[in-house]
Amino acid sequence: TVKRGVDLDLSLYLVTGRDLLPQGKSYLTYLEDALKGEVSIVQIREKNLGTAEFLEIANDTMSLCIKYNIPVIINDRIDIALACGAAGVHLGQSDMPLSTARWLLPSHAIIGVSCTTPEQARKAVEGGADYVGLGAVYATSTKDVSAPGSVCGIAGVRAMLSVLEGTGVKAVAIGGINSTNLLRTLHSCASPTGHTLHGVAVVSDIVASPDPCAAAWRLGDTFRAWAAAVSPGPIGFQVTTKEKGQYTRDGIVAAAAALVDTVRHLRPLVHQITNNVVKTQSANVTLALGGSPIMAEAEAEQADLARMPGGLLINFGTLDALDGMLAAGRHANQNGKPVVFDPVGVGATAFRRATATELLDAWQPTVIKGNAAEIGALADSNEVKAQGVDSLGGFKNAPEVVRSLARTHRCIVLLSGPTDYLSDGSTVIRLSNGHELLGQITGAGCVLGTAIATFCGAASIAAIGSHEGSLVNGDMLLATVAGTLALTIAAQHAAAREEVRGPGTFLPALIDELAMLTPEIVLRTAKIEVEME
Ligand code: 3NM
Ligand code: MG
């Protein structure tokens, strides 16, 4: 008897808020425009109205929504829902208890509950809610979310989706969702096994828009494109190589090697916001690989830069461009550009951990790379100790750590070390190229991030058969492999050079070897093992 709500289309859930209407605009005109823009369900949310006036608005809303065959939900007020014959009610945590509402309402009534924590989601499931509103996912000015814990962020939505998985209770995210962050929100909000949102709830992006019909269309279009493009893999990226069944050891090496030439042909712009210690060396590595570096950090230039195709690296080793980092990743997500995140020393201080969370709430990375201490900190593991920004020792089960972190963060994860492990959440690839001299120069890990951003940039430009609803196009797993191979293989060849006597002579030799790298060298030298799930 969980039939109720099965056909409920929550994909574009409009919450009305008359306070937000542009000056002098009529509520019903606006509502009808939004209905023409094909919102799929409407909630009437009025916080400051007397009962009579609320009922009048509810009746008017019902008449209009019946015309468009769209269900109406009443926020909080069970009496109003009963009086106007609405499809159901939406309950906040301090509203009528779910069980009481269920008892008061007819059996077919839809009941939704606002949740901010996994515990609240669990209770809503147990109480028989039909759907839940998860949020606030982002800060918003539409509702007071200033109390600590009111904004659950991406991680909070993920945790609640894990609770909901398999229960049949549907979920929408709410809070600060708009046409610029919708695709990223849909991609990012999923449980580790890929349980995703059924829709998004929006107030201001529609209601405060000069053209609510167009605003709703924009959101609906993005939702439909995303729903059509979601890949079957656990992290939801389009993975072309895998679709062609090429994830064999030889297939990967051949395709990765070919990308060395792709980079040189396409000269991708590689935009880097990186730390003060490694800027020059990162720009030189980009040039040597055939990319075009730009080290631009100011917040005001990020929108312009993101319109140029290529790759983005965000490395927070020295944290003085936070606003630039926040904006750069957001704009990259909006423009389908791959984002490589290098959370240098993330386990070292509480400030870095908080900053990583803030950045990952603001944008979706394509690749997260880190050493054992950094990956351990992101995975909440105590197995690996950090010393400054370097890590000591490794994991007992590195393949499982990267696979699981990839699933949690919905991106490719690379764990660098003597052996590098990377995963898209299902396949794990083990790379054993490199040289110990890499551990004796500063920023070896940082320039690995640069190399990956360079290859991801080229692969995304080269992507054919692109999906509109994909956050990034192109095979990013392959690009990550290629970037890692390029740097570690060049390091091996540099270390073998006669003139290299130690770290001082190694660095320029490494740049030379990167500049001389060819697909043939990669084919000949690559040490790869592929482990399919
Ligand atoms: N509920 P906008 S956030 C009504 O967190 C509401 O439960 C929230 O408005 C929650 O789309 C919110 O303009 C306001 O940000 C959403
Ligand atoms: Mg309420």
Automatic annotation (TrEMBL):
Domain Thiamine phosphate synthase/TenI: 12-206
Cofactors: Mg(2+)
One Gene Ontology term, aspect cellular component: cytoplasm
Keyword annotations from UniProtKB, A to Z: ATP-binding, Kinase, Magnesium, Metal-binding, Nucleotide-binding, Thiamine biosynthesis, Transferase
Source taxon at top rank: Eukaryota
InterPro entries reported in the protein's UniProt record: Aldolase_TIM, Hyethyz_kinase, Ribokinase-like, ThiamineP_synth_sf, ThiamineP_synth_TenI, TMP_synthase
A GO term for molecular function: thiamine-phosphate diphosphorylase activity
Catalytic activity: 5-(2-hydroxyethyl)-4-methylthiazole + ATP = 4-methyl-5-(2-phosphooxyethyl)-thiazole + ADP + H(+); 4-methyl-5-(2-phosphooxyethyl)-thiazole + 4-amino-2-methyl-5-(diphosphooxymethyl)pyrimidine + H(+) = thiamine phosphate + diphosphate; 2-(2-carboxy-4-methylthiazol-5-yl)ethyl phosphate + 4-amino-2-methyl-5-(diphosphooxymethyl)pyrimidine + 2 H(+) = thiamine phosphate + CO2 + diphosphate; 2-[(2R,5Z)-2-carboxy-4-methylthiazol-5(2H)-ylidene]ethyl phosphate + 4-amino-2-methyl-5-(diphosphooxymethyl)pyrimidine + 2 H(+) = thiamine phosphate + CO2 + diphosphate
Family of the protein in this entry: In the C-terminal section; belongs to the Thz kinase family. In the N-terminal section; belongs to the thiamine-phosphate synthase family.
HAMAP family: Thz_kinase (MF_00228), TMP_synthase (MF_00097)
Identification of the protein by name: Thiamine biosynthetic bifunctional enzyme
Lineage of the organism: Eukaryota, Fungi, Dikarya, Basidiomycota, Agaricomycotina
